[in-house]
Structure formats: C-alpha cells, structure tokens
Amino acid sequence: MKEIDNIRRYMDEAHMSQRELSQRSGIAHETISKILNGKYPLSHKLLVKIADGLNIPISELMEDAITPITVGVQGYIEYDNEIIKIKSFRQLQKLVQQIEYETSILPKEVKEIKTLNEKNRKLIKNSINKDDYEFNINDFELIQTHDATKVDCWAFKTASDTKDGIILDLGNQCSGYPFNLHGHMFYTSESAYLCGQFSHNTEEHKRIQNQLLYEKNGYTAKKKVKNTNKELIRADWDSFRAEWMLYVIWAKCQNTDFANKLKSLPPNAVIIENSTTIHEGTSSFWGCKNIELEEARKKVERYTALEYMKKVRNGEIKKNSLELDALIQSESDKIQYIGTYSDGRNYMGKILKRCQLALLNNTEPNINYDLLRSKRIFLLGELLTF
C-alpha cells in the first residue's frame, strides 16, 4: 500500500520512531505498529492524524511515489553569511524557494517599490503650496485616513526615524528634551503624561508621581512605574487623557530644541505616530497604521542586507554591524510615499500638529482648560488651576 510506504519513508527522513509518531499524532502506539505492518485498516481520519504527526500535508502521503532524494537528505549550505544545517528534503525545498525569491523576485519588487516611492514623492512635493496649510488644521481633527501617496506624511515610530534629513524623535518616550511643568523638571513627556493617570490628592499618587519625575527613561516609566501601579489609575482617566496630553506637549514646547524640531517640519506636514507594529490597547487611539508601507520597507531592508553581504563575500568591504544597521535604517527611511495610514485616530500626531502650527503662528493651541480644572488634577501635592 503506497500510503504506508510513504509514511515509512517520511518517518525515516525525520528519524522518527513509531512511539514518537504515536505521541505526535495522538494514535495509540499499538495501532501505529499494526498500521505499518498492514494489520490495521488505514482510514482517511487516521491518515489525517498521521500527516499532522509528521507535520506534512496529507497529500504528501497519498501521492503515488516519493522520489528517493527525499530520503536521508542531510548536509550544510552556506547562504546569507550563515552555515545552514539541512536535516530534510522539505527544509532544502523551502531554502531553495527562499533563495529563488530573494535572488530573482525580490530585486524586481524592491526596484518597483523605489520607483513608485520616488514618483509619489515628486508628485507630492510639486503639489505643495507652502502658504496654504491653514485649512489642514480645521479638518485635521476629523480625518481618520492619510494617503501617503497623495499627502506629505511625516510619520515617526522610533527615536532614529528620519525624513529629509530630519530626525523624527517626536515620541513621548524620546529623551533629550527636558522641560518644566509647574516648577518640576521632567526628563520625558511620557513621565509627565503618566502623572495625569495618578493625579488624585493621595499619598500613593504623590509617591508614584515622584517616581515618574525622577525616571529618565520614558520606556521604563511606562513599563515599570505605570504597569506596577495600574490598579491605581484614575477611574475617569479616559475622559481627559487627550487634553492632558496636549497640555503636556505644549509645556514640552518650552524646550527650545523641541520647539525648533517641530518648526523644522513643513507647515503642511501631516504628522503621524506610526503604530503599525504596535498592538497595545491604545495604539489605535494615539497613532494609526500603514501595513502596505511596513511590508514594502521589510522588503527593502532585506534586499539592502543581502546586497551588503554580497559585497562582503566579494571582498569589496569588511562587515561592520553598525554600518549595516545604519544602512538598513537609511534605506528604509527613504520609503515614505507608499500605502495609506488608517485604523487609528492619530491623536498624538494631531496634538503635535496643533502645537507646531501654534509655534509657527506665535499663538497657543486651543486647550480645554475648563475640562482640566473640572478634573481636579494634583501634581506632587499641588492642585493645578491652569
């Protein structure tokens, strides 16, 4: 029976015993033994379980024949500066498919991505009128999607993101922009923002705010201080978190370097917090996602790494991990004008935009102070009257 022969061959290839197949498939060891000896009827249901145990499609067992090369394939292959141990024909097949894709298809895809990106970049730059940006802010609060192929999106995710030579370290967790908030110097806007979550006039909240005040790392402030005390967060926090964020970011604009960073962005820049790879509960509130752009960048990053390693193997350059990382970041950052940002309200981007326009126009953003006063927000023992 061909199915039994195929099962035996795949077991030999994987060096799998009958007992191991029994454990993996959920079929009794005695039944496995009888099946392989032709003493037990092999139903379709049992064949499905055996295929699952062997981690192969059932069609592989039902084929008329398996070529001899599938049995006992072992060895080593050097690819992408790695020595890969081959344990099975299936692994070899997958590696060959990967190599075929990365050497013949990926270069064409990356070329198309870069061509489209440059085409869209030129269209956007040529359509921009530096004096007609005020209409943006009037409708900006209502916009839920931003087409990166048609509008000038300035999206940030990490402190190392750049566009047109400008480092987009605009996120709350980015350091380097200390600012004064009601007589207290905060190292990051993340710490100041989190103080709003713990802003009742209690000793517990005052203790947490003190921790946040002296925490220099925004990530630690969120993951350590906040998460340790999350059961103490104000019950009404969601009702004023966006307005408190605006208040904190505007205070951060007292820092001249941060204010100049915002003003260095084009007046009609659509500022976006890119939350594509972030899956926390608030990621769609503060940012929005562009899956098409993320996928395009991954291809560019992979192609860049492969081309770099090709030069290393050819003796043209010596491998330098820091140099490679910087090159990958640079090539990835060039891809900006692909896909659409959606699936999010982008409140962080909108707040930064409101602050940017206020700075450019020498005004102040419209902060709802009545709402903030009504919430009786305390900062290190002081009731903020705004």
From TrEMBL:
<dbReference type="InterPro" id="IPR001387">
    <property type="entry name" value="Cro/C1-type_HTH"/>
</dbReference>
<dbReference type="Pfam" id="PF01381">
    <property type="entry name" value="HTH_3"/>
</dbReference>
<protein>
    <submittedName>
        <fullName>Helix-turn-helix domain-containing protein</fullName>
    </submittedName>
</protein>
<dbReference type="InterPro" id="IPR010982">
    <property type="entry name" value="Lambda_DNA-bd_dom_sf"/>
</dbReference>
<feature type="domain" description="HTH cro/C1-type">
    <location>
        <begin position="7"/>
        <end position="61"/>
    </location>
</feature>
<dbReference type="InterPro" id="IPR012816">
    <property type="entry name" value="NADAR"/>
</dbReference>
<dbReference type="GO" id="GO:0003677">
    <property type="term" value="F:DNA binding"/>
</dbReference>
<dbReference type="InterPro" id="IPR037238">
    <property type="entry name" value="YbiA-like_sf"/>
</dbReference>
